[in-house]
Amino acid sequence: YPSLDRCETTSTLYRWEFVACLIGGMSIHAGANLLNTYHDFKSGVDTKHAADDRTLVDGTMRPNEVRYLGLFLFALATSLALWLASKVGSDLLILYAAGTFLAFFYTADPLSLKYIGLGDVTVFLCFGPLLMTGVSTALGCGTNWTVLVLSIPCGLLTEAVLHANNVRDVEADRRVGVRTVAQFLSNSWNGM
Predict the structure, then answer these.
(1) What is the pLDDT, as a whole number, of residue 50?
(2) In angstroms, rounded to a whole number, what is the distance separating the alpha carbons of residues 87 and 141?
């Protein structure tokens, strides 16, 4: 892979590849959030009495509207990833496929990673190493240790936001059978 020194960093912000990364990243993130809303509602995690996202429990949108909009955004992100891969190579598709797999199955059956205690790891990977390495690759800069090391704080910061939400929802998640790192830590602290 090329080093960051050989990457055209001065013109990166003005290239179509950057625009495609920005729109694709926002699309996959929004699509994952919509599918998370859909699956949390369908599985009973979100109810009228306990839901952070009120879209479905308050009837603002119908479940299929949320699901189809999420799938449309995944399709948009995929088309942009295919276009980018045609310019920079198939390595990008491997990173994109891994991130999309994790984002989709965060709450979707049959894996439902969030519900079995793997949500924290999934969010760290998606918003840290996979995102940073994917963007670096898509912009023609490739992957190297610098990108991977710098991706760790990004992943940990996003994970901290998720963890704060999970701490707030420990009891609600426990009632519906969702397992999180926050629950594990609260059980460990209560046992001391």
Answers:
(1) 81
(2) 12
